[in-house]
Amino acid sequence: MFTHITVGANDVEASRRFYDAVLGALGHEPGQGPDPKGRFWWRTRMGAFAIGTPIDGEPACHANGGTIGFAAKSPAMVQAFHDAGVAAGGKAIEDPPGERNGPFGTLVLAYLRDPSGNKVCALHRPG
């Protein structure tokens, strides 16, 4: 369904370090860039994720109620995502990393805010 997701960053270098850490914990290579517009990109065969300063020149801000979820292959990767993110300048939010039961079954989740306030999570679907 999605081809790419781009989020704004007020400090591109801090955000690049954060996403290199959390996405690296999920098995992805470091971001490539900057491109001609100053963005860094993490690409997979399923889509791409990018960070950069807003093209309109206004400050980056997060979407209230928005979350970007990244797939994790195991519960250990969810924890590694969380730990790497906190170590790279992110902020732990909501419940501690772990299992949640709800209408979508059992999920293993960890939520963070990146250096610009964007809400991201790692999600593993057991079994």
Give an account of the 3D structure.
The chain is an alpha/beta fold. The chain has one domain (4-53, 66-124): Roll (2,3-Dihydroxybiphenyl 1,2-Dioxygenase, domain 1), CATH 3.10.180.10. It contains two helices and eight strands, in the order βαβββαββββ. The strands form two sheets. Strands 4, 5, 6, 7 and 8 form a five-stranded mixed sheet that branches. Strands 1-3-2 form a three-stranded mixed sheet, covered by helices on one side. β2 (40-44) and β3 (47-52) form a beta hairpin.
What key phrases describe this protein's structure?
127 residues, alpha/beta, 2,3-Dihydroxybiphenyl 1,2-Dioxygenase, domain 1, 5-stranded mixed sheet, 3-stranded mixed sheet, 8 strands
Q: What can be said about this structure in brief?
A:
The chain is 21% helix and 33% strand. It is α/β, with parallel strands linked by helices and 127 residues long. It has one domain: 2,3-Dihydroxybiphenyl 1,2-Dioxygenase, domain 1 (Roll), CATH 3.10.180.10.
Chart the SSEs and their pairings:
Elements: E1 4-8, H1 12-25, E2 40-44, E3 47-52, E4 68-71, H2 75-87, E5 91-92, E6 98-102, E7 105-113, E8 119-124
Number of helices: 2
Q: What percentage of the residues does DSSP assign to strands (E)? A: 25-35%
The total strand number stands at 8
Distance between the termini: 23 Å
The level-1 CATH class:
Alpha Beta
User: How big is the Rg?
Assistant: 14 Å
By CATH, the topology is 2,3-Dihydroxybiphenyl 1,2-Dioxygenase, domain 1
Specify the helix fraction band.
Answer: 10-25%
CATH architecture: Roll
The general outline is globular
**Number of spatially distinct domains:** 1
Mind summarizing the main beta sheet? Answer: 5 strands, mixed
